[in-house]
Amino acid sequence: MSEQPTEIKLHQQSRILEISFSDNACFQLPYEFLRVYSPSADVSGHGPGQEVLQVGKRQVGVTGAIPAGSYAMQINFDDGHETGLYAWEYLYNLGKNQALLWQDYLDRLESAGASRDPIR
After folding, report:
1. φ, ψ (nearest 5 deg) of residue 104
2. Which one has a higher pLDDT value, 44 or 27?
3. How far is it, in rounded angstroms, from Cα 50 to Cα 77?
4. Mind listing the domains of the chain with CATH numbers?
């Protein structure tokens, strides 16, 4: 993939990461979406079928985003999750497939009888 980000904005109040790419694509990715699709081994596992369903992340926040070379960034979440590098290609694909991925996540939550809301 040759598209590179041209602008990245964290919108704390709306909990949205807005990212624009060199091909003029622009995506608004909710923090919750980024958290439940973290590329870290804690979330995605070490291979197909080893994914860990993330629950209770509706109100998750981002405390920072740190560049990782010229190919990715690390996103730090306020629930303590700070592992996994979000490569530009991965973020682009999340944006491009957001509706499908989000529906898949909601379906998996429902199948598990789980909730997006934090356990109190």
Report:
1. -60, -45
2. 27
3. 22
4. 5-100 (3.30.2020.30)
